Amino acid sequence: MSEASLDLAILGGTFDPVHTGHLQIAKVVSDLLSARICWVPSNVPPHKPSTVATPDQRLTMLRLAVSDQPEFYVDDLELDRGDISYTLETLKIFRRRMGPLPRLYFILGMDAYQSLPSWQGWQQLLDYAHLVVCRREAEHLPAPSLLAFEASHRVATTDMLKSSAHGRLFFVDNAVLPISSTEIRAQFENKGNPSALLDPAVYAYILKEPLYTASKLIRKPK
Hints:
Elements: E1 8-13, H1 20-33, E2 36-41, H2 55-66, E3 72-74, H3 77-81, H4 87-98, E4 104-109, H5 110-114, E5 130-135, H6 144-153, H7 158-162, E6 169-173, H8 181-189, H9 200-208, H10 214-217
Helix pairs in contact: 2-9
């Protein structure tokens, strides 16, 4: 079987920095769906402030974090594309690459899912991929604008999810660790030691650069 025909799950984000919570989500989804995980660092996220680390630094950290995981790989297409990173455009590119038959998944955390109605072309995302939402148990309180979306597209089992190449919504429970990149940056700024929350190679790289010191975290006025 060619690599292009394998099931693929996309995990996007700023990854500023990538941490063990991201790796946990990727591992859970990969095991559950028997899918490779493609990590896609965003260039300019539409709904977040600018990043602290540069695109090259975030890309390097991602590659370090996944280097010993054969089911993970990194694609820098959003960085190469430049400008604002819209998920819909990314999914269109992946679908063109893969063709119509292989299953394609897009992974979201619960916060991202709740904000989905504010995304560009959000209801078209399912034309190209399944949405896989990772949450902690009992975390789900759907926004009113998502109720009809869930009623039309949500499935309860992986068999139902895998019965088509795209178009469905699936929730994965207990896949999220209570870790955030914001918290990690704050620990570095306050001279803490967040090494337990990071891949060892990523932690070493952050210290070497150095990244996320107090001076790095002071943003220039726009």
